[in-house]
Amino acid sequence: MKSDQFLKILAILEQECPKWQAPATMFAKHYGYERTPYTILISALLSSRTKDETAYAAAHRLFAIARRPQEMVNVSRETIEQAIYPVGFYKQKARFILALSRKLLHDFNGQVPDSLDELVKLPGVGVKVAKIVLEKAFCKPYIAVDAHIARLCRLWGIADNAKECDKKLQELVPDNKKRGCNQTLVSFGQAICRVKKPLCHICPIKERLGSFGIVCQEY
């Protein structure tokens, strides 16, 4: 798929996205806690391998206890575990939350760094989480690739795996279009192009994909 083709698809999805009842869109509208680089970082960490609704609820419980690294380091690991359960790998994530909070205080004066190289040095922070933070907290042009986006890339013949998808999207999407791309594509994957029982009959890009010679295989 060429860049202009992908951008035409993205434009359609951006227009249709507000109509969908997708967790990625719905939860982004209502937060019961202050959105800071630190809370965005922790919530992104919690969301890894976890349903949006579960991670959303866990973040609210945790941030009712502590919202800054200075506060979090004084919370016991057991208390963090209880607050974030049942997110995936909650015991490991509790350890990561404490460890990265200490590192932020020790190495970054309590501030979340705004570079990819520094973010991935934090305990438990991979490229996907780092790119979410850079986009959401620092308004930088990054696209975080999760399971939904990697699946769409395979379906559209863009890439065969998440790593290749990440590289291809950087090439296909200009910087001024990268912000918001993750949420749009994830919402489409959650609401329309679902893993189970995809709603191909109401897919807003089916004809456009067909015009590019891409025929999705219905499940």
Radius of gyration: 18 Å
Overall number of domains? 2
Mean pLDDT: 93
- Unreliable parts: none
CATH architecture of the largest domain: Orthogonal Bundle
Biggest sheet overview: none
Total helical elements: 14
Compute the separation of the termini in Å.
22 Å
The CATH superfamily label of the largest domain reads Hypothetical protein, domain 2
**Class per helix and strand makeup:** mainly alpha
Total strands: the figure is: 0
CATH structural class of the largest domain: Mainly Alpha
Helix content: 55-70%
Q: Please state roughly what percent of the residues sit in beta strands, choosing from under 5%, 5-15%, 15-25%, 25-35%, 35-45% or over 45%.
A: under 5%
Instruction: State the oligomer.
Output: single chain
Order of helices and strands: HHHHHHHHHHHHHH
Put the structure in a nutshell.
The chain is mainly α. The protein is built from 14 helices and no strands. The radius of gyration is 18 Å and the shape is elongated.
